[in-house]
Amino acid sequence: MTKRLFIVTGEPSGDIHASYVIKELKKLINEIEISGVGGLEMKELGVNLLYDHSDMAVVGLDSFKKIPHHIKMGSNIINYLNNDFKPDLVLLIDYGGFNLRLAKELKKFNHKVFYYISPQVWASRKGRLKKIKAYTDKMMLILPFEEPIHRGAGVNAEFVGHPLVSQLPERCPKETFCKENNLDPGKPLVGLFPGSRKMEISFLLETFINTALIMQQKCPEIQFCLAQSINISDNYINNILQNINPNNKLNLTILKNSNYKVLSASDFVILASGTVTLEATIYNTPMIISYKSYKIAYYLYLMLRYINKLGLPNIISGKDIVPEFLQKGAVPELMADTSLKLLHKSSERTTMINDLTNVRNLLTNNIASARVAEIIYNEIKIKRY
What we know:
- This protein is α/β, with parallel strands linked by helices and 385 residues long.
- The model is unreliable at 58-64 (pLDDT under 50).
- The chain contains 17 helices and 13 strands.
- The chain is 50% helix and 16% strand.
- It has helices spanning 12-28, 40-44, 62-85, 96-108, 128-135, 146-152, 163-167, 174-180, 198-218, 234-244, 259-265, 275-283, 295-304, 312-317, 332-343, 347-362, 368-380; strands at residues 3-8, 32-38, 48-52, 89-93, 113-116, 138-141, 157-159, 189-193, 223-228, 252-256, 268-272, 287-291, 324-326.
- The chain has a 7-stranded parallel beta sheet, with helices on both faces. Strands 10-9-8-11-12-13 form a 6-stranded parallel beta sheet, with helices on both faces.
- The radius of gyration is 22 Å and the shape is elongated.
């Protein structure tokens, strides 16, 4: 008998995570019909898309305009599941703002709800744990410290491993990278990652460039690479750079859609907080982390956060292994001094590399998508091939 799975993602990253789970699931299950909300990755695997997630992924003030649309979408999903598709299980992936509200509605009709990649209750909004417990049947977590937090709140939760461990591209050797980009492999290489959203970049890029200028003054041979997110236009980056680096004083190469190469080939990186810090950890690249935002947003974060650290390597390790420069503390002079110390072969650099290796080991070698597929398989009880 064919079983049915409905998957809900809200943005491209969720679409990618879903695709890996689907590929693993198809290794285990002979007959399964999959429908959902997703993107090109899911569609190419034969998933019938009720909605494309491009209708969902919004930020800032636009999110308020989308509320009526999201409400209607949620209602249509429920009607479709109740009256037409009738799934054996619903898999929600990340995108907590929408998916937790949807989970609440799903449980009213006794749908089996599994959730992969939990909302970051450890960063803020700890109250979401009550909703997670009430509206989900199984939470599959990607960070090791999340499991005790969820289990402590009575959530049926399991750490399945981090998807980056198996999905991150192989390291790009520095020599290869430098040859491709007309750089000198014999000189220090520093990567700058000011974020993938305009708001992040507006707060951090000037700080990062000023930090790099101070580093260059003290060590002229340093080469800098700015990793430009694919969704950020050249004009946006260039307009900012013209104001803060008008005479091209900085030895800067701008590369678009080459984040993993820059991250793995660099001797050192300066990062906006986020998933990129975990990617650097897996590549074992020494780093510092920075975060700046509107004052009110930062103070709200301080009030709501559950863990007294921001960088994922520090949270996972439970200690301060990567320096964090936050808000008023994001001072270029301090960031430059710390970066230079960690760039060169110092005891601090060696210690950080060892600590990052330990964090990478805590993430395990589990293939997260395979474990998620196995959990789903065991729940819907389909015979193997």
